[in-house]
UniProtKB/TrEMBL annotation:
Compartments (UniProt record): Membrane
Coiled-coil regions listed in the entry: none
Stated name of the protein: HAMP domain protein
Protein keywords: Kinase, Phosphoprotein, Transferase
PANTHER family in the record: SENSOR HISTIDINE KINASE YPDA
Molecular function GO terms recorded: phosphorelay sensor kinase activity
Originating organism: Faecalibacterium duncaniae (strain DSM 17677 / JCM 31915 / A2-165)
GO cellular component: membrane
């Protein structure tokens, strides 16, 4: 049943393939032939129109031509004719179908003619000028547009215009055009040209099909003797142009490639049963086992591995690669889970470290004292600043926050620390506008400012904290240089050694907040981030400087996260 289910559709498909292949080839051949003929006939007709426009424009608008038509003086007539003929070569060069242009004046005694390079035959020129010199010929030609004449056993397509005694005639040699020039358009088949009456003007009349039935695609198939021909046609003025190309139709006589196609299809039909058996043993069964293993892994059984003994080397390689991939995925999942736990622990530690119970209690005591002493405005200001501080350190959930937001909180904290104090805290910010949106771990700079207030403040001296952010251009790319400096007591030698070594600290150790900032920067930027703890050389005080990479991809990613 499987064999029949495959063989019958293949047989039908083969028949349809042969049919539509023949139809496609026939339509493609007809389109190519029609396209080439259309290009040629369009160009031919455009050139005829161009020549006709030139003749009409010259006869109606050229003063010299009008002067020539009224001229009785032979010398003056010759000069006018010579001047008019100066434009003939350009017309001949622009229209290669044109055999020649003849200017006639007076009673037939003056002729000036110019001829194309393919028409440099004295006999043709003499025959044409002799015909145009016959009495009454010019007047007969005026109203007919393009017309056919046989002159000296050559068939010409002529167009004449006249004004009084002067006339202009353009001549096209049809045999030259449709037997020679047509080859320049890649039309290597046979061309037959007929008039309105169906008489053959150019080409072999024996090749003309006796019966032609044109289909909707604009071509017909016919037989001329034993040969099949595909015929396309175009209309040019009063001429009908037929283009005949050989065509190998479908029938008893198959083309060689069609015979090979049929033989190949028969071979495939005979090979299907053996192919099905082989595929079942070598492909379907191993694939079923592998899919079953994948399903179990998808249900969470990460310890399952594919253990089928495959006879096919390719499936054996796929099986080994699959098992290695599952091992790697399992390990990566474990590593990722551990990193996530570590990041969460660090984040929770950071949150806990930012909630200074003693600082909050001191603020509340200050509020109570201000209320007791009647300093209501100071109390209100302190409560407002404290609420901003608590809202920021308790509510952030994003991995990063923009630099300008962090600086705002630093200023808020400094103002909070100065309310009701004799020695206020002053914050000075020097920020490069291009770094305003730089992503930072929340509470990072705020922690540095808090450290300055906690450890650097001296009695009787205003604590000045300077926050700077500069853009540095290095050979490896752009860096952000951030620093927090104060004019306080500064770091001790032991503190600097411990801080710059980046050794981890316990939650109850010293400078835990600073180590927490270092750790979170490392988690965010990796080895690309650097932090230095120093003392100011002039004026004393502590200085913490951060060097962070400016990675457009990282900024975009962190901006979306925020």
């Amino acid at each position: 049943m499987i064999f029949l289910g495959i063989a019958i559709p293949i047989g039908i498909l083969l028949g349809l393939l042969l049919f539509f292949s023949g139809l496609y080839n026939r339509n493609r051949l007809a389109a190519a032939a029609s396209g080439g003929l259309d290009m040629f006939t369009t160009n031919f007709e455009n050139q005829l129109d161009s020549v006709e426009n030139y003749l009409l424009n010259l006869s109606l608008n050229d003063a010299t031509f009008r002067s020539l038509s009224e001229q009785t003086d032979r010398t003056r007539a010759y000069l006018d004719a010579y001047e008019i003929a100066q434009g003939f070569p350009a017309v001949l060069a622009a229209n290669d179908v044109l055999m020649g242009v003849v200017l006639r004046s007076g009673s037939g005694n003056l002729y000036v003619g110019r001829y194309g390079a393919a028409a440099q035959q004295l006999k043709q020129k003499l025959n044409l000028e002799a015909y145009l010199g016959q009495p009454g010929q010019t007047n007969k030609m005026v109203t007919k547009g393009w017309y056919l004449r046989t002159i000296g056993q050559r068939l010409y397509l002529l167009r004449s215009v006249f004004y009084q005694k002067a006339s202009l005639t353009a001549a096209v040699d049809l045999r030259l055009v449709f037997e020679e020039l047509v080859k320049d358009y890649g039309l290597d088949g046979r061309v037959i040209v007929m008039n309105d009456s169906g008489n053959v003007l150019v080409g072999d009349a024996n090749l003309l099909p006796t019966k032609m039935e044109w289909n909707s695609a604009g071509y017909c198939l016919t037989k001329v003797g034993r040969d099949s021909r595909l015929v396309v046609r175009k209309q040019v003025k009063a001429l009908t142009v037929l283009y005949l190309v050989p065509y190998q139709h479908f029938g008893v006589d198959f083309a060689p490639y069609q015979i090979l196609l049929v033989m190949g299809a028969v071979f495939v039909l005979l090979a299907i049963p053996f192919l099905l058996f082989y595929m079942k043993q070598e492909i379907f069964a191993p694939m079923t086992a592998l899919v079953s293993t994948m399903d179990r892994i998808g249900r969470g059984e990460l310890s399952v591995r594919s253990s089928v003994d495959y006879r096919n080397a390719e499936f054996t390689q796929v099986n080994e690669t699959f098992n290695r991939m599952i091992d790697q995925i399992t390990q990566l999942k474990i590593d990722g889970y551990e990193k996530e736990l570590e990041a969460r622990r660090n984040e929770m530690t950071a949150l806990k470290l930012q909630i200074r119970p003693h600082f909050v209690l001191n603020c509340l005591k200050s509020v109570y004292a201000m209320v007791q002493t009647g300093s209501r405005e100071d109390a209100q200001q302190l409560i407002l600043l404290l609420s901003r501080y608590l809202r920021y350190i308790l509510s952030f959930t994003a991995t990063t926050t923009p630099l300008h937001t962090e600086i705002e909180q630093c200023c808020n904290y400094a103002e909070l620390s100065s309310v009701g104090q004799n020695d206020p805290v002053e914050v000075v910010c020097e920020i490069d506008p291009e770094l305003s949106e730089l992503p930072l771990p929340p509470v990072s700079l705020l922690t540095l400012v808090e450290n300055s207030v906690k450890h650097g403040k001296m009695i009787g001296k205003t604590l000045k904290i300077t926050i700077t952010a500069k853009l540095l251009e290095t050979e490896e790319g752009c860096m952000a240089d951030l620093s927090v400096a104060d004019n306080g007591t500064g770091f001790t030698a032991g503190d600097l050694k411990q801080l710059n070594s980046a050794a981890p600290q316990e939650e109850n150790g010293q400078h835990v907040g600073l180590f927490n900032v270092v750790r979170r920067l490392q988690l965010l930027y990796g080895e690309q981030a650097a932090i230095a703890f120093t003392n100011n050389r002039r004026g004393g005080g502590a200085r913490v400087e951060l060097f962070l990479p400016i990675d457009p991809v990282l900024q975009k990613k962190e901006g979306e996260t925020a």
